[in-house]
Amino acid sequence: MGSHGSSFSSLKAYGRALAETPKRLACRAGAVSTGTEETSKIGARSGSTMQRTLRWFDLVGLGIGGMVGAGVFVTSGTAARDLAGPSIVLSYAIAGLCALLSAFCYTEFAVDMPVAGGAFSYLRVTFGEFTAFITGANLVMEYVLSNAAVARSFTAYVASAIGLPTTHKFRFTVPFLPNGFNQLDFIAVALLLLITLIICYSTKQSSTLNILLTTLHVAFIAFVITVGFSKGNWMNFSQPSDPSKPHGFFPYGASGVFNGAAMVYLSYIGYDAVSTMAEEVRNPTRDIPIGVSGSVVIVTVLYCLMSASMSKLVPYDSIDVDAPFSSAFRGGRSDGWGWVSNVIGGGASFGILTSLLVAMLGQARYLCVIGRSNIVPTWFAKVHPITATPINASAFLGVLTAVIALFTDLSVLLNLVSIGTLFVFYMVANAVIYRRYVGTTGPTKKSWPTLSFLLMFSTAAVIFTVTWRLCRYGRVKVVVLGGCMAVAVVLVQVFQFWVAQARRPEFWGVPLMPWIPTTSIFLNVFLLGTLDGASYVRFGVFTAGVVVVYLLYSVHSSYDAEGDLDGIVEILAVQKGEEHLEIRKEFDQV
Fold first, then answer.
1. Taking 90 as the threshold, does the pLDDT of residue 153 lie above it?
2. Which of 135, 140, 342, 427 is buried most deeply by CB count within 10 Å?
3. How far apart are CA 381 and CA 378, in angstroms?
4. Per mean pLDDT, which range of 46-50, 387-391, 439-443, 468-472 is the poorest?
């Protein structure tokens, strides 16, 4: 009766659906769900439920395990040698601050709406289905690519552990494939498939394994820091091995520090994975703030200490980008400590296992919740009744990641991942402001003051970033940068004074609203501006592909799902002899 039927039942039906694309797009693109729907009705589409078995220490362990292996052991070498030099320490501190501010935004959403969808769910209840899908697709992409990058680095550290040069990575070169895609890494493939089996088996058992591995890994990190500071040379903080290279703690200037921060931001994807575990947390109100923010603070301190020990051990221009810590103990003043290089190879491989375990848990839960929304096939939403894990999403993404890791070089992956992470964190910071200041009914429902503020603030941040990036140093640059900062501060102050908050979180909220999320917005825009043009081209191409998928499939699948719901409601209305809208309200409440 009221059901729209399936748009994919036949070619004729699909043709009719495509002809109605503008109408369906207007109906679904801006459609928002509520927090209650995300946690109940939409969640029911998975069939079985995920079990609430995780505590705060599980989340802290997952956060540390997810971030440490992926960060220092993959991106630190490239960022230190090519971008920041010894000031990589400050790059990690800046990236950590930005991540902590974003973590506050994530925490407010996760406590209020403890579902497995992370940023996808947060944006779906705020800005609607289309924005959530663009963000969710980029999230899944960044997880898959970062996991592929980490798995390939695992091979390099295995080589170091047994004493082979890092140029011998147990990879097979295929001459006819293009450069960057011609070294096949079967060890990475085997590792990814093994972890896929583990996360399909049990979330709680995966967390227990992660805590054990992470505890041992942190002890190993403490050893590396201690040896690095005791055996390194302070001269390496200012003197490169090649006299022709730039000298000093800031060999590439302040811009190099921020370029390095954008690169190492990959390191903080792990806390985002923690937010996807919210549906499996026993006490979300208490455990999520401790787990998310606590893990970011601990990991930032570890990153800064580790990068400092690396910089003290070896000049920045001599760092091995594939295995920076192993190579560091083969240089500098570490005579007699060469054996530590082999230990580091094994230890880093050990840490990479934890980071992969956590990240692959996270990527599966993102795809599972996207499947619940009918934007992608609901097959991905299935939760196994025995293991209580999203088994289909876990298996599919595990295989996809393994295929990418087989072919693709580390350098091809890193910029794509950084830009995706920064974009998602930027969107969540905007969303937390919008949700606080725009109500659902009455005069607070007006969205234009908040949207205007967010647009103007982001514009000021973009002008600041472009000026910093493109203008030469001089009076004009200083005036423009200072003006942008002043405008940004005034905008926040005026917005805070004139626009009242429409809602206040019941359990946990971002403090100093709206200063913390706006600072996060500004920092993320700035870090986005430090990436190269090729990153934006690749990001734009991928996003355009996502839009095409949405227009050809997702909007129609979502429209069908909503139509099926309308059909059920209309039948109930006829049977009860009541108005359609009244029955719909009853149905939504149930």
1. no
2. 135
3. 5
4. 439-443
